[in-house]
Each structure stands twice: as C-alpha cells, then as structure tokens.
Write a structure and sequence with these properties.
Elements lengths: L9 E6 L5 E7 L13 E4 L10 H10 L6 E5 L17 H15 L4 E6 L1 H12 L4 E7 L7 H10 L9 H12 L8 H9 L2 E4 L2 E4 L5 H6 L11 H5 L6 E6 L7 H10 L3 E6 L11 H15 L1
Parallel strand pairs: 3-4, 3-5, 5-6, 6-9, 9-10
Antiparallel strand pairs: 1-2, 2-4, 7-8
C-alpha cells in the first residue's frame, strides 16, 4: 500500500448491503499536516477502472497542496480490490451509487467534493438525486449529459475482450495499439503506468483489474440509436460549483456538449486537456493545478 514511495494511503474496507466486500484507498495528510476543515475529495473511476487512477490527484491534494485534505478513491464492486459480484446484473450505476453511500458512511464523510471520471460522473449525477446534501462541488472528467455512442462502441469492443498479455511489455504494446491515437503524447513511462493500472498480477499472470463480466451490461446497449440525454440529471448539480474536464481527442464527450454544460450551469468552469482522449489521466500539470485550485475555492 505504499506505491514505492512510502506509506501514502491506507485501505478502507466495508461490506455492501448485500455483503459484498468494498474497498477504497484513503489518503490522509501526513502527520502534522491535518486537513482541519478542508473538504475531503471522493474520487470515482471509469467503468473498468479503479482507485489507483487517482494516485497523482490524491497526492497533490493530500500532500502537495498548500491546504492538505483527505482523499478517498473508490473501487466499485468488481473492480480493483473490491469483491466481484456473482450476478453481473448488479454492475449498475444505481447499485454502485448505493455502494458509494455505504463507503461514505464507513469513512465518516458526510459532505465532500466529488471527482468522477466517465462512469464516475454518472454516479455523481445519481448521487445528486439520492443525497444532494453530500455534494459540496463536482468535477466531471470527460462525461456529460450527452454521451457519444461512438465512444461507447469503442469501449464495448475491448472491455472483457482483450487477450491476456504475456508480460508487462506486451501489455504496454497492446495499450499503445488500442489507444495511441487518443493519447499520442504519452511517454514510455506513462504507458507503463497506464498498463499497471489496467492489469494486475495474480498467481504469476497478468489479469484484468476488473471483472470481465462487465462486458455483459454493454452488450444490451442499442448503439444504433442516440442514447437518451441526461440533462435532467445534470440539472441536479446546478446548485454546486462544477469543473468539467474534457480530453481534446475524446470520443465520448463532444466540445459542443461541454460548451452547452457551461452555458446551462450557473457556476461551471471548463478545461480541455490537449493531446488526450477519453478519459484524461489527470496526472498532468494543467489538470492537477485546476483541480487543486477548484477545491481550494470551495473551502470558503
């Protein structure tokens, strides 16, 4: 639990309402740098992603920012270190939002800033209906009320379907083949880090860091028709400050939808990350600075 840089986070575990084990990384300020009344940040990953995606964000907010704050990065059921559900039909935004509420209770967090990548942003919108008072502010990473079917079609092609790489070098090559056009500027080190957060080592073999049964939910989507817009759900965030981030090469969130989000939301800041697609990795300087500044403004 130290990511090679000392003990930077602790594991938080609890049981969902159906008994499934849930896990989150809990980053707290170092001794002598207590968070005080700084709002905590809760990080929610994409569909087949997990809590490690937010390591750099969590360090920036809990260790590097002028005002240190607690950061909780969540593993949904079936991802990362959370238990895998025997019934894949439970892999839904509704169930994962209920699991989030259980984790928040276990962590003692009543109100926070929520950062959601892709599916995580949908969960934030769901939370705005189920428990709006919990949201002090929201950061949506490459997700909005209008989801481009082309991007979902691409995601459906690989979730649960990628062959098992023989080693880390092969894993990196597979990612580059799949995602280089969307992330043309990543260094070799960044590609390796990307791979290490896509697969995990189990019994000497690389395996997906998520339950391949997630693919079953994607099969049911009719991508021949436009997906229903979620503007009503987006309206649930109108009462809190919002930072909306888009990857320049995103095929899930269009520039037009981002502009409409900014037009409709009374307190929406936008940021486009150059050279990245769906979804921005949030480990670059512009992303970290924007997120840190946004969180600092909300403390007042």
């Amino acid at each position: 639990m130290d990511d090679g840089e000392g003990r930077l986070w602790r594991g938080l575990t609890c049981s969902a309402q159906d008994g499934l084990a849930l896990f989150a990384r809990d980053y707290v300020p170092a001794a002598g740098e207590e968070a005080g009344d700084a709002l905590p940040v809760v990080c929610l990953p994409g569909l087949a992603r997990h809590s490690a995606d937010f390591h750099e964000v969590a360090l920036a907010l809990s260790r590097d920012a002028p005002r240190k704050r607690r950061v909780l990065a969540v593993d949904y059921r079936g991802r990362g270190r959370s238990g895998r559900d025997r019934n894949w039909e439970n892999y839904t935004v509704q169930t994962e939002t209920a699991d989030l509420l259980t984790l928040l209770t276990a962590a003692g967090i009543g109100r926070a800033i929520f950062l959601g990548t892709s599916r995580g942003g949908l969960i934030i919108m769901m939370l705005s209906v189920m428990r709006p008072a919990a949201i002090a502010g929201a950061i949506l990473n490459d997700i909005g009320p209008v989801i481009d079917g082309q991007g979902l079609a691409r995601i459906r092609q690989y979730v649960g379907k990628m062959r098992t790489p023989a080693n880390w070098d092969e894993a990196v090559d597979m990612l580059k083949t799949h995602a280089h056009r969307r992330f043309p500027a990543l260094s070799d080190r960044e590609w390796h880090k990307f791979a290490e957060r896509t697969w995990s080592m189990a019994e000497g073999k690389l395996v997906p860091a998520y339950d391949p049964a997630l693919a079953n939910g994607l099969k049911a989507l009719d991508l021949e028709r436009p997906l229903p817009a979620l503007w009503d759900a987006f309206t649930g965030l109108s009462g809190v400050p919002l930072l909306a981030i888009r990857g320049e090469n995103s095929d899930l969130l269009s520039a037009e939808t981002l502009a409409e989000m900014a037009r409709l939301h009374p307190a929406c800041e936008t940021l486009t990350i150059e050279g990245q697609g769906h979804a921005p990795l949030l480990d670059d300087v512009p992303s970290l600075m924007a997120i840190t500044r946004f969180c600092a403004r909300l403390d007042g």
